[in-house]
Amino acid sequence: MKRSIQRVLLDHYDRERRELPWRGETDPYRILVSEVMLQQTRVRTVLGYYDRWLARFPDVDSLADADIDEVLKAWEGLGYYRRARNLHRAAAVVRERPGGSFPDTYAGLRDLPGVGEYTAGAVASIAFGEAVPAVDGNVRRVLSRLCDEANPKAAWLRTRAADLVDEQRPGDWNQALMELGATLCSPRSPKCGICPVETFCAARKAGTQHERPGAAKRAAVKRVRIVSAVFEANGRVLLERRPHEGLLAGMWAFPEARAFGEAGRESVLELANERGLTPVGPPTTLPEVQHRFTHLHATYEPWLVTVTDSGIPAEARAWVDPETPSDLAVPIAQQRVLESLRRRAAAASA
């Protein structure tokens, strides 16, 4: 049965696969970029970034040579910025290898920063033809239904996926499984009637395809309120580089505090004092901004404060004009605050 499944699915993949810019690639760097971008991100979103990224960083050397601010700016809007930082670090590691060559095995790829089981399996199989599996969410769902396994654990998935890898075409096989999950074997409405492996699917036979895999337990989403201090002087606002570890590491954002409401007003004034800024008049509120991280729902409460000077100079601070595009990498939530400033300015001048 294994050979039959491989044959019909690869035949279907050869006929029906989507034309994507990374399909057919053999360059491990380009494959790594695509796989990292696709982690927790929809294909249609990645399509808007992949070619631009390669135009800016066409190879390992260009990425390794780039400043982290340039890297984060190119990634701006894709989210999960740790992926960009890890790509940057991985490029530096590869360049330091003998001859600047990419690791050409699954085990070697796992040693690169940010490269986990799935990414190493995808790159090793697609770029180097190593017969190893690559299990992402789509593959998990396909295998769960194919075997009618209600609760596929990681060890079971690794074993089952490894058993099914086509040794002659491992890269195409892994992509075919992912493609099946992305296009036909979807979470809520599987298109079983046109699925190439329908006759081999245990869940389809049992009528449990809509129940497989079982719902995973989701971690409770933590909700936080964050005060954003929007200090304005001479038409510019202050941004600060965030710490190099933690949420939105290394990006540029407004100074923050955790108090809100009237306490938020006071905390903003305290932040101004810490930076040597002299407020002119009382702080005023800007529209709140909602942003959802993986396990965090943040409500940003921006307070606009006009100040008389640019305060104490610091390397990790920058004054930017909201009306002018910046080279700094600014998170989406803070970009929305900047947009509200532009709307405010437009309304005032109307």
Identify the notable features of this structure and list them briefly:
350 residues, alpha+beta, Endonuclease III, domain 1, Nucleoside Triphosphate Pyrophosphohydrolase, eight-stranded mixed sheet, elongated
* Count of extended strands: 8
CATH architecture identity of the largest domain: Orthogonal Bundle
CATH superfamily of the largest domain: Hypothetical protein, domain 2
Q: Give the topology string: H per helix, E per strand.
A: HHHHHHHHHHHHHEEEEHEEEEH
Helical content class: 40-55%
**Please, what is the average pLDDT?**
94
CATH class annotation of the largest domain: Mainly Alpha
Main sheet makeup? 8 strands, mixed
Ends distance: 71 Å
Number of helices: 15
Name the beta content range: 5-15%
CATH fold-level name of the largest domain: Endonuclease III, domain 1
Quaternary state reads: single chain
Gyration radius from CA atoms, angstroms: 24 Å
Characterize the overall form: elongated
Low-confidence sequence ranges:
none
Query: How many discrete structural domains?
Result: 2
Written overview of the protein:
- This protein is 44% helix and 12% strand.
- The chain has 350 residues and is α+β, with helices and mostly antiparallel strands.
- It has 2 domains: 210 residues, Hypothetical protein, domain 2 (Endonuclease III, domain 1, Orthogonal Bundle), CATH 1.10.340.30; 128 residues, Alpha-Beta Complex (Nucleoside Triphosphate Pyrophosphohydrolase), CATH 3.90.79.10.
- Strands 1, 2, 3, 4, 5, 6, 7 and 8 form an 8-stranded mixed sheet that branches.
- Strand 6 and strand 7 form a beta hairpin.
- Helix 10 crosses helix 12.
- The longest helix is centred in the C-terminal third of the chain and has 18 residues.
- It is elongated and about 75 Å long.
